């Protein structure tokens, strides 16, 4: 955990050496010393945290390292703040260099003192037997997991469908040795499901030779081989003989013992795909149907362990299954009628908080089984996660294993998730931008920061630390964190002084001493927050406001101007008008990289934002709701010289008026720009624009939208154009220059598709057409698109009565939506068309006649077709 902070600061020091090289002079060697010394310490820290987690002296030592790291970062940012790019080396800069050099000398003394203390108090390198022993709580927990691997719960609730499906895979006719991988979040029941299969009577009858081994993170291949041999019951050699054999000899011995025999082996709790790679040579493929079951938390391990792998993602329990499991553990039976009515209501509430995680439900049930009074249950509910942690070492340590296994670059990204409120649906795009603004995503050559951030997100999802909530148009739109993992992240963040949460409704989270030291502040609003900000750390990096209920908030902006290193300022749902001093003072926050006024009703931004030369994201999208407008988006006017914000990467709002952004070469997304404003922009310099949304308002005369300007955006991937009534599109033909285009949404009169649409849009994956008024059946042409996966044909897309899909058309289509269109009567689909179709959405009571085989295809989630934030305008 501390290694993540230290590693982050080491990277900052490296960047500082590169970016400020011309100013550093004699200070450069001191900065290099700091970087190298922290780099060496980093190796020790990672080992120390894992091996001696229960050592209070070590925890104090690690806390001191964290404090020094934060202070080093402050010194770097102060220097960068004072020495502006393009400055001459003046006497002022020399003075600041001298001041910085003195501070670094102080850090050198403190770091040397920490090294001395490490020796003085015996905090050695932890590479001896004592450091590697299983005497710690974590070691005991690992032993407990191994010891219980063969215990069988006579009554396992849930996963009947999963068990039957995987049992069929175990017993099928496939003769080649194959791997079945079960993956999912810690505590979800992967081992329980594997045991259910392992001890199944039909499995015992088929696989005479069976073995089970638990791997864990710090596995030893030689030890695993010996334990597998013992588990199989192979007795031709004594234990002493096995211990004298080399790893290769053990492999040969196990392979020879199994050759020609039908076997099943369970490799439980695998963390690296290399673990199976190091074992697989010992398991012969005798073409007799032998099987391997792997359980893991990590998707990549599950999917890439073997060339013949069936990866099964384990689901969470449904509410009815969760309640049944809870009753079994609490009351000793599954009859919910035996429970007192008030206790039952509280029980259901707490079970819902567990979100289908069996581990949490089992521990909760065990805790409440000894409590019969209503007041006792209420006390548990008030502090549910703390109670679960205190009652069982499994909860804290089982989840902590996932966190501890993260590389340092992912630890900070994961901890950042705890800033968001409980059960909050996190917008993934905004999360990526926040990570980048915080500096958690280091710049690498030829890599786009947003792509690297998405790789980090995908890895956290693959490690079962983030849950995908909604998908929209082929990509993940929102996510959430299970409450137990959020609680873990808050706990770890508090230890690191990484963040502080101010929640008026949970005073226990508003510890003033914590607020004065933490690096980030999340404020769950209502009322006056000036007192919270007044005691906050002056060197704070982020302030995020969450106000979903749009309560009236009192905010003193000059107070916020004291936060000179602020990188992120995000107002989510700020209600009412911003005070005038906002417009005068915001330019003082010159370190800002992310400024968000989403849902705040801001209609005009002050010229003072032009001083924010480091700004990467400006998000001012809002809706107004009053007696005359329902959810209508607020149009926003930007300062005329917005082109001065050279670092701008994302510009989000309903923009109107002149938009001088031609020189913003780093701009990647522009949402949403008025078509008239867009027509006056020269897009040739927008070389990195990947997402563009254009809209038009009603006007007296009809206009034709041409794609000539769009085709100059050579990296464009996502394009949305919404025309008002009476406007129309010109030919799509020019889009053939946009070879990266994968998402196209057109709202307006199109009339005709190009005959060579598969050549024009060869990589298109998602397409929406609304009010297109096509005169010819679009299916023959759309069916030629080789990459199309999602198709939405919305209101008035076609003027005819019949649709026809020929055989072999839509080769990759997975989801299709047809909106109500009273003119349509029949949809014919030949055999062989849409072979991958898994989701079909049609309006209820539609009179459209469709083939019988399509009626069994389920509708996709509504979120798959959420068409964007501007829909209420059209």
TrEMBL record:
Residues 160-334 form the NB-ARC domain. Residues 419-489 form the Disease resistance protein winged helix domain. Pfam families: LRR_14, NB-ARC, Rx_N, WHD_DRP. GO terms for biological process: defense response to other organism. GO terms for molecular function: ADP binding. Residues 540-842 form the Disease resistance R13L4/SHOC-2-like LRR domain. The keyword Nuclease does not apply. This is AAA+ ATPase domain-containing protein. It comes from Acer yangbiense.
């Amino acid at each position: 955990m501390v290694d993540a902070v230290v590693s982050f600061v080491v990277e900052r020091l490296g960047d500082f050496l590169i970016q400020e090289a011309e100013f550093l002079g004699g200070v450069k060697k001191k900065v290099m010393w700091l970087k190298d010394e922290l780099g060496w310490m980093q190796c020790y820290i990672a080992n120390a945290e894992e091996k001696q987690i229960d050592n209070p002296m070590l925890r104090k030592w690690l806390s001191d390292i964290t404090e020094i790291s934060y202070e080093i970062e402050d010194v770097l940012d102060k220097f960068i703040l004072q020495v502006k790019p393009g400055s001459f080396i003046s006497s002022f800069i020399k003075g600041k260099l001298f001041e910085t050099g003195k501070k670094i000398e102080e850090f050198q003394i403190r770091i040397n003192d920490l090294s001395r203390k490490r020796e003085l108090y015996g905090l050695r390198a932890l590479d001896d037997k004592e450091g590697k022993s299983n005497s710690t709580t974590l070691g005991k927990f690992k032993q407990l997991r191994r010891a219980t691997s063969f215990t069988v719960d006579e009554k396992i609730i849930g996963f009947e469908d999963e068990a039957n499906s995987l049992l069929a895979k175990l017993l099928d006719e496939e003769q080649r040795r194959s791997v079945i991988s079960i993956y999912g979040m810690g505590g979800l029941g992967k081992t329980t499901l594997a045991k259910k299969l392992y001890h199944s009577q039909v499995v015992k009858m088929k696989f005479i030779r069976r073995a089970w081994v638990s791997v864990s993170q710090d596995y030893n291949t030689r030890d695993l081989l010996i334990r597998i041999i013992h588990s199989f019951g192979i007795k031709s050699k004594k234990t002493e003989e096995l211990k004298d054999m080399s790893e290769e000899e053990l492999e040969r011995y196990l392979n020879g013992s199994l050759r020609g025999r039908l076997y099943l082996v369970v490799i439980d709790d695998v963390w690296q795909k290399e673990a199976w790679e190091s074992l697989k040579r010992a398991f012969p493929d005798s073409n007799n149907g032998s099987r391997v079951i792997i359980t893991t938390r990590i998707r990549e391990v599950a999917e890439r362990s073997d060339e013949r792998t069936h990866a099964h993602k384990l689901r969470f329990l449904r509410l009815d299954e969760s309640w049944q499991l809870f009753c079994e553990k609490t009351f000793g039976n599954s009859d919910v009628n035996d429970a007192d009515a008030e206790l039952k209501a509280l029980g259901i509430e707490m079970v819902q908080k567990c979100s289908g995680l069996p581990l949490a439900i089992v521990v909760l049930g065990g805790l409440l089984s000894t409590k019969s009074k209503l007041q006792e249950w209420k006390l548990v509910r008030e502090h549910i996660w703390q109670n679960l942690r205190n009652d069982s070492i499994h909860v804290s340590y089982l989840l902590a294993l996932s966190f501890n296994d993260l590389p340092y670059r992912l630890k900070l990204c994961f901890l950042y998730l705890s800033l968001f409120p409980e059960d909050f649906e996190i917008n993934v795009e905004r999360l990526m931008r926040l990570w980048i603004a915080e500096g958690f995503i280091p710049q690498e050559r030829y890599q786009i920061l947003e792509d690297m951030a998405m790789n980090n997100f995908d890895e956290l999802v693959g490690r079962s630390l983030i849950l995908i909530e909604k998908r929209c148009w082929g990509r993940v739109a929102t996510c959430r964190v299970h409450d137990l993992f959020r609680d873990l992240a808050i706990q770890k963040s508090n230890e690191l002084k990484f963040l502080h949460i101010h929640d008026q409704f949970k005073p226990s989270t508003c510890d003033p001493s914590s607020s004065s030291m933490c690096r980030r502040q999340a404020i769950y609003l209502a009322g006056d927050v000036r007192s919270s900000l007044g005691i906050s750390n002056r060197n704070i990096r982020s302030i995020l406001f969450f106000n979903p209920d749009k309560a009236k908030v009192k905010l003193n902006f000059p107070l916020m101007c004291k936060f000179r290193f602020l990188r992120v300022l995000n107002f989510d749902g700020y209600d009412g008008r911003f005070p005038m001093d906002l417009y005068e003072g915001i330019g003082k926050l010159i370190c800002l990289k992310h400024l968000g006024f989403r849902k705040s009703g801001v209609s005009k931004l002050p010229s003072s934002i032009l001083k924010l030369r480091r700004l990467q994201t400006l998000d001012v999208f809002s809706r107004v709701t009053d007696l005359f407008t329902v959810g209508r988006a607020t149009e926003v006017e930007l300062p005329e010289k917005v082109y001065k914000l050279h670092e701008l990467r994302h510009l989000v709002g309903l923009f109107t008026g002149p938009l001088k952004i031609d020189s913003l070469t780093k701009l990647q997304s522009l949402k949403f720009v008025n078509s008239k404003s867009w027509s006056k922009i020269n897009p040739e310099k927008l070389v990195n624009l990947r997402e563009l949304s254009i809209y038009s308002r009603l006007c007296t005369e009809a206009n034709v939208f041409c794609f000539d300007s769009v085709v100059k955006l050579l990296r464009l991937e996502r394009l949305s154009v919404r025309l008002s009534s009476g406007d129309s599109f010109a030919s799509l033909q020019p889009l053939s220059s946009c070879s990266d285009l994968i998402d196209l949404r057109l709202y307006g009169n199109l009339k005709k598709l190009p005959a060579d649409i598969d050549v024009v849009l060869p990589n298109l994956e998602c397409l929406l057409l609304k009010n297109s008024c096509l005169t010819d059946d679009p299916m023959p042409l759309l069916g030629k698109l080789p990459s199309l996966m999602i198709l939405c044909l919305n209101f008035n897309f076609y003027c005819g009565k019949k649709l026809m899909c020929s055989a072999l058309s839509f080769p990759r289509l997975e989801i299709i939506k047809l909106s109500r269109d009273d003119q349509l009567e029949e949809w014919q689909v030949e055999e062989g068309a849409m072979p991958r179709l898994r989701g079909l959405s049609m309006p209820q009571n539609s009179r459209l006649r469709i083939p019988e085989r399509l009626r069994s295809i389920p509708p996709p989630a509504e979120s798959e077709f959420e068409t964007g934030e501007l829909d209420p305008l059209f």
